[in-house]
Amino acid sequence: MLKQQVSTAKTDKQFTSLNNDAQLLANDTEQLMATLEPQLAQVVAQLEVLGPAPTNGTLTETTQVVSQRKSLNSSKALLTTQIEQAKVIAIGAQNLSAQIDEMRRGALKTQIALNTGTLLGEAFWTPLLNPSDQDVARFNKFSSQLRDAWQQAWDKEWQIGSAVYLLLALTIGLFGRRVLDKPINWILLHVLPQGRFRRSFLASVTVLECLLTLGICVQLLCHIFTRLPVTSLWVHEFAGQLVGLTYFSSLVAALGISLLSHRQPSWRLPGIADPVVKILAPFPAILATSIFIFGTFEQLNALVGASIELTLLGNGLLALLVGIIGLVAPLRVNRIRRMMRDEGEESEVRSTIAGLIHLAISLTSMVIILSLLIGYIPLARFISFELLWIGLVLSCWYLLANFVVDLCDIVFSPTTYCGKMLKSSLSVNDRHLSLADTLFTGLGKTLLLLLATVALINGTFGSTTPLELLNNVAEIWGGKGLEGSNIIPSRVMNALLCLVVGLYVLRSTRRWLDKDFLPKTKLDRGMRASLVTLFANIGYVLIIMLTFSMLGIEWNKLAWIVSALSVGIGFGLQEIVKNFISGLILLTERPVKVGDLISISGVEGDIRRINVRATEIQLSDKSTVIVPNSQLISQNVRNATMGNAQGVATITLTFPLNIDPEQVRTLLLDAYRQHESILEAPAPSVSFKELGPNGIVLSVTGYVISPRIVGSTRSDLLYEILKMLRNAGVDLSQSQK
């Protein structure tokens, strides 16, 4: 009956009630055995007094003795059976209790919206005030193993090595950064050129210093125990977990120290005011220390198999500290900024993204504390670790992105040593260096953003400890990639994150290509626009495919989608598909491109944009005509700028028969040559078109730089020609063609 109830239980209250019932059953059976065992011993003693039954016929017993022996044997058999049954029931109840504990542990990891009791309740603090005997026994066992390992490390055959490792660990932990600061400062002042790269280099090196000194220090301390031949498995596992937790917490502290740069304000990478930095300076160390202490407590609980109540205590306390730090820090920052504004002091300029991050941290911290108060400790703990991981990834991305940008500026700058070496060795000019700077900067930032996205996807939505966060990201390099992550809330969250980040990366890259990289090349404006549009179309397709992949949809199982699309194309989407294919042809074959002056179906204007479905043509009156792409493929199109970008300004005039043709020819050529828009080569020319009863027809032709100015140039020439003919006394025929 109890096992059936366990199989159908879903909430933590049901698990807790069933666990109490199982423990009560185990206690009752143990009490029953404690009651039955003396009775069994008494019966056995009475049987020993009676002695064994006679086997030969010489000895006879009274009826009373035989009856008493029979009764005692029956009681012995009954008591033995009852004790055995009680043992089976007790063992089963204990196993069931352990099974319920495992189910509750699994529920804590998979069901983040599990109500386990409020932080203010007595049950939450019971493991601390009144720990259970089982927890005390488990921790005593671990402490005894750790004590044995420590004693063994200082045995005669191991004490020299232990002393060396301990001395190295203390030296690196206490003086490692001081030793590394001297060569780093020398490199900053004597090797690196002046500029922003010095700040990003110092910030990055500061993070590496903290990671190496603290990480190596703890590794050496743990190696004192792990190198021993008879060290227990618990000590080995705890040492490995402690090293990973050290790197995680030290990274949190190192990023805070590096980005805030409290002791060196002039080298600070982000633009944060000094009073704000003084307020924020203690929080990274406090947060890192809290993560290390309570992370160690969680790892110990998982290692020794502590009770769920003790696990919830550690989870709740860590979530509480993260929530308090995330709430107090923004409040103190807002307070100091208000004081600075009231006193008229200059504060830093905050961007919209910085304001959104500030608001998101505050709201998330409020959600954490509220979840703890109403009893959702797993949810609060889940949000706490997601907040820590997202902040860690974004901080690393910001630091590395600045490092990459500043590094590219130094390497490809024509004024630095590296830039001069590149110019001399590769025979490139400043424009090529600027182009390489833009290219490698964009590639580096895009690669970092993709790595940050992968880290967020593998670290969030399923990691329950800092070590699991690091292990999930490490699986990328082990070949598992995104497929190895265990996404607990839903794959939809990963798909949405992939979609949002993918669109952001695509739009940022498209804007970078359009505004920064391609303008520095020798490509014409039409080719640049075609490349940007083609890149965007391919990018959207790849993002959609990746989003479906994150949802777990296999393309070989989407036959119904293909069928639906086929039906849709047959009934109403064929025009859209035709225009889409035509758009791809226009972008690749380029019979027309952005910036061309075309004429189609009586519409003449400049192509401004080639979209997926249609092309935008701007007319001379600045209005826009939308032409489907299929028409540009299937109809006759006049492209005035495709083969030759020059325009032709031709004026045909009719003169009386009594004029001097040579004089008029000279006047017309002079008018064309004097106009600033007429090109010298090919030179203007006058053609004798016709001689008839109405007069002499002369045609004058000149070339201009673009067909777009033919109309205005022709108008100016007509004004000038009429003025020159009037001054020369030459009349026009009344009949003009």
TrEMBL record:
Residues 650-731 form the Mechanosensitive ion channel MscS C-terminal domain. The chain crosses the membrane at residues 158-180, 201-226, 238-260, 280-300, 312-333, 353-377, 389-412, 433-457, 487-506, 527-552, 558-577. Its main location: membrane. InterPro entries: DUF3772 (IPR022249), LSM_dom_sf (IPR010920), MS_channel_1st (IPR049142), MS_channel_C (IPR049278), MscS-like_channel (IPR052702), MscS_beta-dom_sf (IPR023408), MscS_channel_2nd (IPR006685), MscS_channel_C_sf (IPR011066). It is a multi-pass membrane protein. Coiled coil: none annotated. It comes from the Bacteria. Residues 576-641 form the Mechanosensitive ion channel MscS domain. Residues 84-145 form the DUF3772 domain. Residues 533-574 form the Mechanosensitive ion channel transmembrane helices 2/3 domain. Belongs to the MscS (TC 1.A.23) family. It is found in: Cell membrane. Pfam families: DUF3772, MS_channel_1st, MS_channel_2nd, MS_channel_3rd. PANTHER family: MINICONDUCTANCE MECHANOSENSITIVE CHANNEL MSCM, POTASSIUM CHANNEL RELATED. Keywords: Cell membrane, Membrane, Transmembrane, Transmembrane helix. This is Potassium efflux system protein/small-conductance mechanosensitive channel.
